[in-house]
Amino acid sequence: MSISMYSASVPICTTMLGNLSHFLDKAQSFIETRKCDPTALTQYRLAPDMLPFTRQVLIACDAAKNGIARMSGETAPKFEDTETTIAELKQRIDKTIEFIKSVPPEKLDGTEAREITFPVGREATRTLSAEAYLKHWMLPN
Q1: CB neighbours of 113 closer than 8 A, spacing ≥ 6?
Q2: pLDDT at 3
């Protein structure tokens, strides 16, 4: 039985990003209730060697946006990565979801064997089938 690349990617990514937006709503509520400095939260790191929360959100958006684009052959929109506030992060998520939903199923279904070559670090690339890319690289673990 073959996989529907659309069903295995678009709904998963939009749900994941929707959940992330909901987390940001909770964070905004926490900030307002506790009268916290919003920067303390958006720049927070779970561990010293991790990127700050804002960057983690941008990476989640880029993984979904670029992954869908690579598998479908579409061109992903370019974003400036200048978001610093929760409201701006939510807008970034919304723009990402809008792009993902704009890709029709026929652009993704049947692409399982398509070779996807993508950057790994600054100077290297990796090539996987679209199905392996989706299952083992694009989706968060």
Answers
A1: 129, 130, 131
A2: 85
Q: Which CATH superfamily is domain 10-111 in?
A: dinb family like domain (1.20.120.450)
Whole-angstrom distance, CA of residue 34 vs CA of residue 47:
23
Q: Which residues, at least 6 apart from 136, have a Cβ–Cβ distance to it below 8 Å?
A: 128
Domain extent listing, the chain: 10-111
Q: What is the pLDDT of residue 33?
A: 96
User: Where do runs of H (alpha helix) occur along the chain?
Assistant: 10-34, 38-42, 53-72, 86-102, 105-108, 130-133
In one-letter notation, the amino acid at residue 71 is: M
| pLDDT recorded at residue 88 | 98
Nearest by Cα to 16 from 96, 80, 79: 96
CA dihedral sign of residues 108, 14, 65, 9: negative
Please name which of 19, 21, 40, 43 lies closest in space to residue 31, comparing C-alpha atoms.
40
Low-confidence ranges of the chain (pLDDT < 70): 1, 140-141
Rounded-to-integer distance, Cα 81 and Cα 89, Å? 10
How high is the pLDDT of residue 2? 78
